[in-house]
Amino acid sequence: MLTRRSLRRNLALGICLPITLFSLFVIHQKRDIVFSEHSVQSVENAHFSRSKRLTNLDQFTIISNDAQRLHAQYQDPYNQMSYAVPFVNNFNNQRQIFPFPPIQHRLNPVIETKTLERFVHLDLKGAAPKLDYYKQLFPFLKQLGATGLLIEYEDMFPFTGHLSIIKHGFAYSKNDVEQILQLAKTNDLKVMPLLQVYGHLEYVLKLKEFMHLREDRRYPQVITPCLEESYKLLFEMIDQMLSLHPTIPYLHMGCDEVYYRLVHPQCVNLNFRDEADLFIRHVTRVAKYVKSKRPDIKLFIWHDMISQLINSGSSNTTELIDLVIPMVWTYVDDVNPWFDDGFWMRFSMFHEVWVASSFKGSSGEITTMSYIGHHQRNQQTWLETMYTASTRHRVNFTGIAVTGWSRYDHMLSLCEFLPSSIPSLAYALQTIVYGRINHVQNTTIGRTLLGCDRVPFWEKPIDSIYISCTFPGHEMYEMMYQHDAVLHQYDETMSFVRLYVTDLHLRQNYIHYKRSQECLQRLYYLEEQMLYFIDSFQRTCSQFFTADIAPEWLQTYFMKKFKEVQSRVNFIERALKNQSAWSQRPISNNTSPIVIKRRNYTINNLL
Hints:
Blueprint: H1 2-29, H2 31-34, H3 67-73, E1 117-123, H4 131-144, E2 148-152, H5 174-186, E3 190-193, H6 202-205, E4 214-216, E5 219-223, H7 228-244, E6 250-252, H8 275-293, E7 298-302, H9 304-311, H10 318-323, E8 324-329, H11 341-347, E9 353-360, H12 372-393, E10 397-404, H13 422-434, H14 439-449, H15 474-500, H16 503-508, H17 513-544, H18 549-557, H19 559-578
Parallel strand pairs: 1-2, 1-10, 2-3, 6-7, 7-8, 8-9, 9-10
Antiparallel strand pairs: 4-5
Helix pairs in contact: 4-5, 7-8, 12-13, 13-14, 15-17, 17-18, 17-19
């Protein structure tokens, strides 16, 4: 009997144990789904951020952040896939974002990319590189798969004559531009200059000499088409641009985000039917002028104003269709839902269409680092969207411009640097070349092309990380990681100091002696680290940029924190030296109610 029982038990174990083990293995493989706590409705640990380049939608990004899960994943970052590394959402999307699957699992069809032009945008209105950097950069861009450059000079162009007042104090010379063009030609990179002819003319209209040409006298963004003098200015700028670019096949005329129309008093004297008629007549006139100089040149404008015209029911777009090529831009994580079928049906009327993705400058007005994830997803989903639009609506896509904005506009702060954003650009270009990035390509790009000692992070890591690479501009990339490390130390130190040295202590010279000593010890070390970073950052910046860039960047992102540290150090040193006795409470001059005088303003003060 015992023998039979043992046999039955062993038989049951032999059958059940493999089934149990297999079930546990399947559950382990699907653990992210089975045990997921990140339902769409759960937003307790969400971060919200707004989107780059103004649009009409007002939605938010939701990215959940479970600290324990992230910490568990982060134990061995060297062996992690880059998209599995814990992250803090620092980028814009304007849409609710759900957890993305690993990149190799995105198997949606993409457009054939072999014949597409792949242009890299150089936005020179902020932190324009020195010529020596282009000598390193252009061969690398060719290696990554770029076929051309979209160069937005703004005030870095060497305008001459009475237009010389427009140019930056460190603007490129004529010889500099000729060298840039020669370097591009040597590396088989076509050149498309971008010269704004309607909106985003802040660098011109901010000057008192041209302020009378503003569409709205308060704002220097938009030039008025209602004055003949505006065309004299624009045509002379075009003449100088064409003169210095004698063989270019393309010219981009901008024309995006034209916020003010039919505002200038002179507009009432002209026979414009509406704002759409004004826009079309202005763009048509400028385009025809360029064509009169260079009949074979292809002219581009951003798509957003054309889209508004078509949506408003304007039918007078026939001339534009024959004159310009629209460049459709958006920099969101998932492009697929951004444009509907109706949009692509309307734009299929154009003989060809380009699109614009981004590799930097679309993650917030004050952002220091371009992490790969957001920009690669933007590029990947653009390829998917282009496939859908080309197959459903026969949109003739012929090129992609990967944009890299240095400022959101001329008046705003510097955002990410070009040299430190090369990893993001590399992944964007390689996504276009291959259609998607899998595990092997991810490793090849990070380790071989970029020459990094680890695969670059796709999202911002929670902890301080150091990375070493060899690509052109790696020094600036590594410096940004040093910046993150110093800020991490700043946050830790100041969170401790603020517990014991508050604003009230500063105002009343009333301290906790022992705790202040502890704070001072920590602050000394932090101050030394911050001083070291300032020196290192300025030395690194001098390799790539003119003398004005390092001070501007430090004043934007760093000096306020450094001054706070110095202020706390000075106060504690002084207090420890002078304070040996403390007055009785209540503290003097601290018994009167706080009275705040309300500001007297009306809406007219804001207009």
